[in-house]
Write a structure and sequence with these properties.
This protein is α+β, with helices and mostly antiparallel strands and 200 residues long. It has four helices and twelve strands. The termini are far apart.
Length: 200
């Protein structure tokens, strides 16, 4: 809890005089997951941005978290905190659409009569809806796209991901992927719309 000290010789805070909103505001780490590998505990963390999505902690928040972990951890336990910007995700799709339901605008965007963009909104919903450190499955994205009434056939031609600190370029996702940072950000979404026509 940012701005508060642990109870002396304990691993908890005295929140008896704080309101629920004060407690929530002080808890800067909104997302966290811990895994152990080769006797090292790796903790991925993130705060919640103004848009409601995960974001990396500020330098001050990270320093506070590390101090807190050093205070509460057991002696001899090695901890590494991963506080990283979102892994970037580049998606390319081919969408065969029902021309009676979806219209392709002059800029190549598929829109419904109410002005919504169902394909792009669905892709964004699938990615932002993943739990922190959740597994992205191409099959889940495919299923969500196929559930749209305006989509007759969906084809995921490419999904590439790249951790912010990766030394190599984006890596093609085969089947599934787990984000290094714990979460993804769509940096590129290309949709090639084609009218669905079964007439030979």
């Amino acid at each position: 809890m940012q701005g508060y000290s642990l109870v002396t010789d304990c691993d908890y805070y005295d929140t008896s005089k704080l309101s629920a909103s004060e407690i929530e505001a002080a808890r800067v780490v909104k997302y966290a997951v811990a895994t152990e590998k080769n006797t090292v505990v790796y903790i991925k963390v993130a705060r919640q941005g103004e848009d409601g999505n995960p974001q990396s902690l500020t330098a001050g928040q990270l320093a506070g978290l590390r101090s807190y972990l050093e205070e509460i951890k057991d002696a001899g336990v090695s901890i590494q905190v991963r506080n990283e910007p979102a892994d970037s995700m580049q998606i390319s799709l081919v969408i065969y659409y029902d021309p009676t339901l979806l219209t392709i605008s002059s800029n190549g965007t598929g829109v419904l009569p109410d002005g919504s963009e169902p394909v792009r909104e669905t892709v964004k919903s699938v990615i932002t809806g993943l739990p922190f450190n959740g597994v992205f499955r191409k099959s889940d994205l495919m299923a969500a796209l196929q559930d749209l009434p305006c989509v007759k056939v969906a084809d995921i031609t490419s999904v590439k991901v790249k951790a912010k600190n990766a030394v190599t370029g984006p890596v093609e996702v085969v089947g599934y992927s787990v984000p290094e940072s714990g979460y993804y950000e769509i940096t590129s979404l290309d949709v090639d719309y084609k009218p669905y026509n079964t007439v030979g």
